[in-house]
Input
Amino acid sequence: MEPVIVPLEDVLDLHTFRPQEVGALLEEYLMACQKAGMDSVRIIHGKGKGILKDRVRRFLQQNPRVAAFRDAPAEAGGWGATLVTLKPP
Output
């Protein structure tokens, strides 16, 4: 399997990834965003049953790069997306 190259933007949509890929993907993504000087990103996990959202939130709680996170406002995905504030590099 070839690696998936994710363009470095302030939004990451997880819909195209398998749940077991999420932890490693988020680790690499947040590290790259932090190194690029981004101070916040939006992670789209979808609404569904909340399983992926819970997985993302557990990861964010334990990640030392994350200063804070919260649900996105309605116009940015509402509870189907999470806004993440990153610590400075």
